[in-house]
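Reproducibility note. Readers wishing to regenerate the assembly model reported in the main text can use the exact inputs given here. Chain order matters: entities are listed in the order in which they were concatenated for prediction.
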Amino acid sequence: MAQIELSAIRKSFDGTDVLKGIDFRIEDGEFISLVGPSGCGKSTLLRVIAGLEPQNSGEVRIDGRPVDGIRPSARNLAMVFQSYALYPHLNTFDNIAVPLRMRRLSAIERLPLLGAVLPGRRAKERHIRNDVEAIAEQLDIAPLLRRKPGQLSGGQRQRVAVGRAMVREPRAFLFDEPLSNLDAKLRVHMRAELAELHRRLKATFVYVTHDQAEAMTMSSRIAVMMDGELIQAGTPAEIYNDPEDIRVAEFIGSPKINILPGRIRKDGGVDVLGTALKLSCRAAAGDCRVGVRPERIDLGAGPFSGTVVHLENLGAEAFVHLAIEGSGLRLIARLADVRHLPGMASSVTFGFAPDAVRIFDPAGKRIELKVEQPERVREPAHV
Amino acid sequence: MSNAHPIPFRAILRHVLLIAGAAIMLAPFIWMISTASKPQTEIFSSELHLIPHQFALAENLREAFAKANLLRFLLNGVIVTVSIFLLQVMVALPAAYALAKLRFLGRETMFALVLFGILIPPQATAVPVFLLLHKAGLLDSYAALVLPFTISVFGIFLMRQFFKTVPDDLVDAARMDGISEFGIVWRVMLPAAIPAVTAFGIFSVVAHWNDYFWPLIVLNSEHLRTPPLAVAHFRNNEAGTSYGPLMAAAMVIIAPLVIAFLFAQRRFIEGITLTGIK
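Running the prediction on these inputs yields the following structure tokens for the assembly.
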């Protein structure tokens, strides 16, 4: 159980800055997801925490104590890798036992032949066996203990990797995209299993993923990283509803948030596609970008109109792709009721409530808005 | 190509060429077996026949074992090749691991030097190495036969190429589990690299079992002789070369390699293709 603090972490490879000064604090027992597009530095940050990659500057503290220069194993963190990284020549039991053997047996006791006859080795091995079997029981892999990783399915390997991490009772678990090698169905299942594991162990989880669905469904907090910077951290709902940066808004949410060109007038009002919204802001007049989530687009009424160019009916919901009239812009609306879909190529009117609008300045930063006449309050959206 | 002829001309040509090649490769061996089976009179007769009129293999073998301590020479061969191989592995694996998986200043330069080392033929360094062994007082000993070959640049190169294909995650997982860097080499990389080590082992054993040049120049004592030297012993006898026992001895000496090859045939071919791809 640990609290992890990062301050001003910088890392560069061959002159390219991968991490540009990360300050972050992970609370004890939290499930933190580090999300971002590939190459944003999230895996590097995880490796810095693990001690596998030394940072160029900055400090990592675990439970208030600096751990820089301390070997990965001495930090007592466990890591689950994308490729699971099981030892291919060892069976499941031995794979899970490795961290225990490394910690509990002396170098001489680990020797292949001599070690087995040393006094005390027996008792230690028995403890290790009990611990491994207890973990295997918890993870439902007890029947697989004699098998080699090559004889296991992806999901089973995943569990063995988690078991190897759990058995040492680490201060925190680090996950590096652990589900990305699984098929879609298994991934959804493992998502629930990992979240449950977190609730049971009450340990600190740091979870790196590029899959926003994983981050949204499992974590207590999400930290969004882009280009080596940590842009925003918050609960999944905060990140989804109150993105502070247009890149966060665009990265989180599927389908992507609709971005329309807008203009801030001199009096602080906001125009989008030539129509004034019932909103005002304090920002200087000029161009802005207006974001509206697909589920906040109301079809059938409103000041705008568009032509249906594509329909995606998923059964429980549908996505309507619209080409906005008078501009080349496209927009996606989510329909919860699939029984009343507009026809292809038909013309529909649409609009959105003022509180559904998030506007961003040309640099991508969020601009605070004041809704002039709140029409109705809607429930917070979910993914 | 017509459908009436299921065997195309090109396939026939290919097989004819392959058979011809195989015949050329096998000819010396067949000649060796043939000569080893003939009595002295038939060997020197002017008519050419492969199958002896009178089989004398047993006599030739008996004479070969009587004239020279062949078993001792075979044992010497085993001691030398096994020691060379074990020491080569002990040097090559950590070096290859460092070159493949660790980041340090000058790594690329080091690897370039390894590649450069492959280009140097052993004969080129024979004289300085000989002088070194002389100064160290190690000439005419097992050490003289083993030490010069303990660092195999080819082995380092081969293992480094193989280690490159081992995922970094595996190394990182081992570090997280508390295995030391040397521990990673022996507990993680070696088991993963067994096919490559086997391939390298075959190359190394074959090369040093058959080596004639180096044992010839560093050895004097008869009891240290390696198998190829033992065969040569049958020549230059004041009584003239006795070809029958010589060929019989040659048969005995290549037998371990042939038997080992038959057992490890698949691995051997894997080993060659491995070096071919990488």
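We highlight two features of this model. Chain B touches chain A at residues 167, 169-170, 172-179, 188, 191-192, 194 (CB under 8 Å). The longest helix of chain B spans residues 70-101.
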